[in-house]
């Protein structure tokens, strides 16, 4: 379920933003936009796969807390380390050469992480 939501998020939010970015920053007087089928399709498939995995973050956090590996308080105390790790992961596994996609992916990971912590705080776990 979360993976499907991640793929839909990639399809409806990230990929249109990337394509719009490619198109807007290309000057029509200098060059025309010509997307290669193989590279574009590869970018779409890889991003959908990454987002399917990234949207599993809440599940991994919940399982780690239920198994007693970590506590919510520990996760909140190490928040900035996780944010840095998310940025690092986003830049390392990024198939897009522009540098815009890693920030979108990292922001998504941070929102999922913080949303999970807020949900845990609200439920009292």
UniProtKB/TrEMBL annotation:
InterPro entries: TatC (IPR002033). It comes from Halolamina pelagica. It comes from the Archaea. GO terms for cellular component: TAT protein transport complex. Keywords: Membrane, Transmembrane, Transmembrane helix. One of its GO terms (molecular function) is proton motive force dependent protein transmembrane transporter activity. It holds the Pfam family TatC. It is found in: Membrane. Its main location: membrane. GO terms for biological process: intracellular protein transmembrane transport; protein transport by the Tat complex. This is Twin-arginine protein translocation system subunit TatC. It is a multi-pass membrane protein. The chain crosses the membrane at residues 5-23, 43-68, 80-97, 103-122.
């Amino acid at each position: 379920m979360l993976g499907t939501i991640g793929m839909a998020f990639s399809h409806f939010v990230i990929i249109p933003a990337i394509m719009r970015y490619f198109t807007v920053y290309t000057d029509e007087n200098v060059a025309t936009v010509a997307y290669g089928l193989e590279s574009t399709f590869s970018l779409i498939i890889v991003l959908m796969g990454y987002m399917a995995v990234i949207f599993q973050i809440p599940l991994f956090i919940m399982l780690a807390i239920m198994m007693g590996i970590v506590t919510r308080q520990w996760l909140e105390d190490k928040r900035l380390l996780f944010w840095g790790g998310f940025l690092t992961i986003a830049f390392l596994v990024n198939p897009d050469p522009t540098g815009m996609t890693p920030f979108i992916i990292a922001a998504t990971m941070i929102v999922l992480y913080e949303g999970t912590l807020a949900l845990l705080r609200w439920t009292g776990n």
